[in-house]
Amino acid sequence: MKKDRRDFLKLAGVVAAAGIGATSAFQSLLGGEAEAAGLARVGAAKKSTDGTRLGMAIDIRKFADNQELAQRCIEACHSIHNVPDFRNSKDEIKWLWNEKFENVFAKDTHTRQSPALQGLPVLTLCNHCDNPPCVRACPTKATFKKDDGIVGMDYHRCIGCRFCMAACPYGARSFNWRDPRGTDDKGRPFIRELNQKYPSRTRGVVEKCNFCTERLAVGELPACVEVAAPHDAMFFGDLNDPNSKISRVLREKFTIQRRPSLGTYPSVFYII
Ligand code: SF4
Ligand code: SF4
Ligand code: SF4
């Protein structure tokens, strides 16, 4: 069996052991009690070194050289998660998207940085912070941190106050100003092809990347990673397991995180 496959089966076992079975994960997604799914409600005050902590590494240059691959990752994510396309940048809903290097790492750039980095498109998503300010800001616990480190959402609990959006320093959350199940003025649906296996949202609800919780629960990789993995452009796994592929990648390659000085401890790393 290939090492990557072994890594992932191990990871799937860890997710299952954390009590995040397919049914319970969907209970949460569909509005069931998160505690019933064995999920922790409170964010850690410091970075976790015990238990499972899922994370991702993204190779910036692999994607910069292959924008078609980046688009396929975005399409895979948005189509399976019923992310609406409002065809209007003001109302845009983003789970995975491209942003210029200098915007993604705005506070971490310096005046003598290589011009080669300027303007590079960088794939951006929720960082699943180990110390997530969005969780603390949410008054209804619609946003919560799970035992495996994933910052999840219970759409049915969201009252649309957008405190989480104000608290997130990464712009990783989007608000549905319009009904995602609706159509534009030409009658075209905002969700091109509804995936019946994943809930769609309603107007007034916030959403973001969920690290593909529902796929992990059935032993699959996150959709974007599945597309990118054959190109060694994305890696996913348990950051606390020294033998996982992502831990090896982080040991061997130089990586950066977004705004580490904020103390949010992002679980997404960028290889540059
Ligand atoms: S990136 Fe933003 S939305 Fe995601 S966990 Fe961190 S603070 Fe929350
Ligand atoms: S908008 Fe929803 S998820 Fe965000 S803080 Fe308010 S209730 Fe929580
Ligand atoms: S991990 Fe899943 S939800 Fe997050 S960006 Fe990738 S495909 Fe989308």
From TrEMBL:
Question: Keyword rRNA processing on this protein?
Answer: no
Q: Where in the cell is it found?
A: Cell envelope
Q: Which domain of life is it from?
A: Bacteria
Give one GO term, molecular function aspect: 4 iron, 4 sulfur cluster binding
Q: Read off the InterPro entries from this record.
A: 4Fe4S_Fe-S-bd, 4Fe4S_Fe_S_CS, DsrO-like, ET_IronSulfur_Cluster-Binding, TAT_signal, TAT_signal_bac_arc
Domain 4Fe-4S ferredoxin-type: where? Answer: 149-178
Q: Which GO terms describe its cellular component?
A: cell envelope
Entry keyword set: 4Fe-4S, Iron, Iron-sulfur, Metal-binding
UniProt-listed NCBIfam families: DsrO, TAT_signal_seq
Q: How does it assemble?
A: Heterodimer of a large and a small subunit.
PANTHER family, sorted: PROTEIN NRFC, PROTEIN NRFC HOMOLOG
Please report the name of this protein according to its UniProt entry. Answer: 4Fe-4S dicluster domain-containing protein
Species: Desulfurivibrio alkaliphilus
Q: What is the lineage of its organism?
A: Bacteria, Pseudomonadati, Thermodesulfobacteriota, Desulfobulbia, Desulfobulbales
